[in-house]
Amino acid sequence: MKKVDILVVGSGVAGLTFAIKMAENHPDKSICVLTKTDPGESNTRYAQGGVAAVWDDNKDSYQKHIEDTLDAGDGLCKEEIVEIVVKEGPVRVNELINWGTRFDKDKTGSLYDLGREGGHSENRILHYKDLTGWEIQRALLEKAGQLANLEILDQYFAIDIITQHHLGRWVTRLSSNIECYGCYALNRETNIIETILAKATVMASGGAGQVYKATTNPVIATGDGIAMVYRAKGRVENMEFIQFHPTALFNPAGENPVFLVSEAVRGFGGILKDADGNEFMQKYDARKSLAPRDIVARAIDNEIKQRGTEHMYLDCRHLNKEEFLKHFPTIYNKCVGLGIDPMQTMIPVVPACHYLCGGIKTDALGRTSIHNLYACGECTSTGLHGANRLASNSLLEGLVFGHRIFLELSQRIDSLDWKEGIPNWNAEGTSDPKEMVLITQSLKELKEIMSSYVGIVRSNVRLQRAYDRLHILYEETETLYNSTTISPQLCELRNLITMAYLITRSAATRHESRGLHYTTDYPDQKDFLDDTIL
Ligand code: FAD
Ligand code: SIN
Questions:
Q1: Centre of ligand 2 from the C-alpha of residue 142, in Å
Q2: In the chain, at which end, N or C, are there fewer CB atoms within 10 A of the end residue's CB?
Q3: Is 293 one of the catalytic residues?
Q4: Residue 257, preceding peptide bond in cis (omega within 30° of 0)
Q5: Containing structural domain, residue 456
């Protein structure tokens, strides 16, 4: 049994921002970060476009960034949270820079080169070529490595958070006093499930894109943290709001994850077109190719379905090659590797699951409904994104809430203690799996169900069909889980089924179309109070 002052699940932008601040300011406290594969493998690592922050006070303002965020969120953002994130954002980005993160400068060499993406009324995106996330992840890991009281345990798979339930107490979704004491985690090298006790735990486990067949998210994005909190009877919300990125690279060979063609390419002048080279976005929104993501993704989906094609196109042929290469070297090389020279040929693009707007419900200090359990980053629903996230607001949210949890826990940590009497993991009655195919095939079926019935366009019939199919998968997987030795693959399948259930259930209870949730049965928006307890 291991005891640490603070346990963090996840080594992306949110988890590491918190862990670095806590470790640096409290050298007497032990901070332990679990990460399920390599420390650098996360959604953060793949972020392309950049971090949105009000940087140029002459042209931009907090009010404009707030309005853009609220507009994208389609009436469901919490205004006080939007204001907090927008106003605290620039200071947090400055800290990232002080920790060694590089962002591109403009031709003068003294000002940052601010990019533009869909839904933004000004240029306000700081970026490092098309590798912003890679650069942030690098700088954070380097900084974390300098702190003696910060330990990163890689290849540690968190299975469940520990609560009163593990002490044999009765806990329900309506219990108001659930407490978190740490977590059980599988050490992938020894195959032993370890008990890690913590005075406070921070969930920063990222998104769940792998619940769909085509996603820009790496294979680690399986919604583990949200599923753990849901199993522990914590509050989860807004799960129906799945963001599909309009422009993933269409690759007939199929790849997982699919490669993203950043929205920044459209901010740079790339235009969405059909196979004949005609624009079509004017039919859907006055902002055309730079309308918010929900609108563009639905428009492309609609065009693809009407025309019976597999993809639409992004035309970059009119752009300056030297500048394009300077800004988007990774995208350029990836396209060329597939035989598509973006300067000669239009890039085939298709929408793909990209971001989860809902998740673990938190307040403005990152507190969840479970005592001593905090959460930040993509696994949360803070109220910033509402029904649709504004581009490049996600890294920003991770930075701001990582900091806010640090402030809150700095006040509380000395008053907290470890829980006594926690039992070790009980693996009695389980044996090694005989057929891995049961897991791999169920995973395929799950992705197929979600992509076919709970995608960009939904309906009551499709959702019901998904629900019925998911129920069968759920029952089969629970039987397997209760009789089989635990493996990361089995845990991920189980967590993804929970994600699928939550997305489908939430979608079925929202009787309107709003933001990222569009249903043919309720095509209009109405005042809808979403107070369902999932
Ligand atoms: P992540 O960075 O995903 O980190 C999650 C961590 O949790 C990982 O370390 C993982 O190993 C760990 N973990 C998960 N489950 C477990 C478990 N069971 N046990 C132990 N560890 C676990 N956002 C922007 O703002 N701007 C962009 O330009 C942008 N571009 C993007 C491009 C792509 C291709 C993608 C996929 C996303 C992009 N996003 C962008 C979204 C953004 O990158 C993510 O939302 C953000 O990085 C999430 O950070 P996080 O710290 O919450 O989670
Ligand atoms: C992109 O670069 O298009 C992704 C930006 C984001 O998801 O915020």
A1: 24
A2: N
A3: yes
A4: yes
A5: 437-519
